[in-house]
Design goal:
Strand content: 15-25%
Structural class: alpha/beta
Low-confidence stretches: 314-326
Oligomer: single chain
Order of helices and strands: HHHEEHEHEEEHEEEEHEHEEHH
């Protein structure tokens, strides 16, 4: 049934209930002319007259009484369904489907999920690890996160953080092999590589050089397609790595890693939260997005300041003082 026919039936039932097209129009927030047009369209569609109408009165015809009696049970059921859907949209309970890349889930998104579960224990998170943006409708995703560039595909996206790309190594690696002082020096070092999920090829490292972002292919001595494995390789002194700031910052502040080439730290990439429709979000989805913005937007815990980068490089054995998180 087309939505205009359904609206016409609601209009008819409201007019029968109130005994006036004008009052029915006011109850629906439409003009009397629109209400009269809807009734005329319905009568034309059914091929019968539903009301006896004069300028002063409105009364059901026999066909109108029969049609109303048949329609009322279905209208009541539909009204209950509409009210139930509205309550579900307003409820802080039910499933919450979240998708996020593996590379930022534990360090960044997991604290948001933990806090949300504490505040709203009736919500049931369903978390998927996936770097792609699939079919939003078929996958039934409520909210997603993406690192890199803003997502496309008809979703609403908000940038939460700038992501630093930090070249770093462990103190043990530096003690054995020394530290590169320029990009060209990296050719003389064991470097880690991260394989692109689609191509399987090691991704180039990206550097800030003046006002430009410059990409360089690095011959990896250690290669993986998992950010945690790459971080462990760098922590273990097996390689110099270029890690995202969300991973590198806490390890630098704890003294486990030393940032290198601070003058070339790029931060053109971002962390984004994205969702399907700004106007029709269930309350639980809106609350989760609001919490993600509250906890993550420009949070200094996930980036190193120029002072921290310089201090850590100048004094590899000295631990920079940890910064407070929100």
């Amino acid at each position: 049934m087309a939505i205009n026919e359904l609206r016409a039936i609601f209009n008819f039932a409201k007019a029968a209930e109130m005994g006036s097209l004008r009052q029915a129009a006011a109850a629906q927030g439409i003009t009397p002319q629109a209400s009269s047009q809807l009734l005329g369209q319905l009568e034309s569609h059914l091929g019968v007259r539903l009301f006896h109408r004069t300028t002063r009165s409105l009364s059901l015809t026999e066909e109108g009484r029969q049609f109303l009696a048949s329609a009322q049970p279905g209208l009541a059921t539909l009204q209950q369904a509409i009210q139930g859907a509205r309550r579900g949209g307003e409820a802080m309970a039910g499933p919450l489907r979240i998708v996020a890349p593996r590379s930022i889930l534990l360090e960044v998104v997991w604290p948001v999920i933990t806090e949300f579960c504490r505040r709203h224990p009736q919500v049931e998170p369903d978390v998927q690890l996936d770097d792609r943006i699939g079919n939003w409708v078929e996958d039934r995703v409520d909210v997603g996160f993406r690192s890199g560039y803003p997502p496309e595909g008809g979703v609403v996206a908000r940038r939460l953080l700038s992501l630093q790309l930090i070249v770093c190594a462990s103190p043990a690696y530096i003690a054995r092999h020394g530290a590169p002082t320029c990009i060209a020096d990296l050719a003389q070092h064991r470097c880690s590589g991260f394989r692109h999920a689609a191509t399987g090829k090691p991704m180039p490292w990206e550097f800030q050089v003046g006002d430009d972002i410059v990409a360089r292919d690095i011959l990896p001595a250690f290669c993986t397609n998992d950010i945690e494995v790459e971080a462990r390789a760098v922590l273990g002194g097996h390689a110099v790595g270029q890690l995202v700031g969300t991973t590198a910052a806490p390890l630098v502040r704890s003294g486990h890693l030393v940032p290198l080439l601070p003058q070339h730290v790029a931060q053109h990439l971002g962390l984004y939260v994205y969702y399907g429709n700004r106007k029709a979000l269930p309350e639980r989805v809106r609350a989760f997005i609001d919490l993600a913005v509250e906890m993550l937007a420009n949070n200094p815990a996930y980036a190193l300041t120029p002072q921290e980068l310089g201090l850590a490089q100048a004094e590899p054995g000295k631990r920079p003082r940890a910064r407070q998180t929100r």
